[in-house]
Design brief:
mainly beta, six-stranded mixed β-sheet, 12 strands
Length: about 170
């Protein structure tokens, strides 16, 4: 698996206020360490390749489940409205490497979902929903949504791109 240069750290949601502040949804477990003044963020695709012009964080603060970020040189909400649905990445060399039992967000699609040693399917994507995130898993020609949280997700194996789960009875029958 090729290592991405940039890792997804935030999804732009919308402008906030009138002076160029952006509301973003964090895609990192460490937003306090990532959303710091001077951090360069780059619009990226699903594989971590740059797709646009970089921006530099001027100020950042938590706001409910999101973060409000001001960027250097952006003082008009019209600029932010033009961004659309963009995912921002940070240079992987500036971020903490995953520990045992962790995976980068871009490594989850393509991972094998396994329960009791039996493969259930392959993750096609991970989707944010109001209650958290769900794995979109293809299984026997069907698409299943599996909550990406404890106690359902038991183990992430980054090296083998494997996610061990314990599913509630009947989940695959839906």
């Amino acid at each position: 698996m090729e290592e991405a240069t940039y890792l997804a750290v935030a999804r732009f949601r919308k402008p906030h206020g009138l002076k160029g502040e952006a509301q973003v949804f964090p895609l990192t477990d460490e937003p306090d360490e990532v959303f710091v003044p001077g951090r360069v963020l780059v619009p990226v695709d699903d594989e971590g390749r740059p797709t646009g012009v970089e921006v530099v964080i001027q100020k950042a603060r938590p706001y409910q489940r999101h973060w409000l970020i001001s960027f250097e040189g952006i003082t008009d909400r019209a600029v932010l409205r033009s961004w659309g649905a963009v995912t921002f990445g940070a240079d992987r060399s500036e971020l903490r490497a995953p520990e045992e039992g962790e995976m980068y967000l871009h490594e989850i699609p393509g991972s094998h979902v396994v329960q009791d040693g039996v493969e259930i399917g392959i993750v096609r994507e991970i989707v944010g929903v109001p209650g958290g995130s769900v794995l979109v898993v293809e299984h026997d020609g069907k698409e299943h949504l599996i909550p990406f949280r404890d106690p359902i997700v038991r183990r992430l194996d980054r090296e083998n791109r494997r996610i061990d789960v314990v599913l509630p009875p009947g989940l695959l029958d839906l």
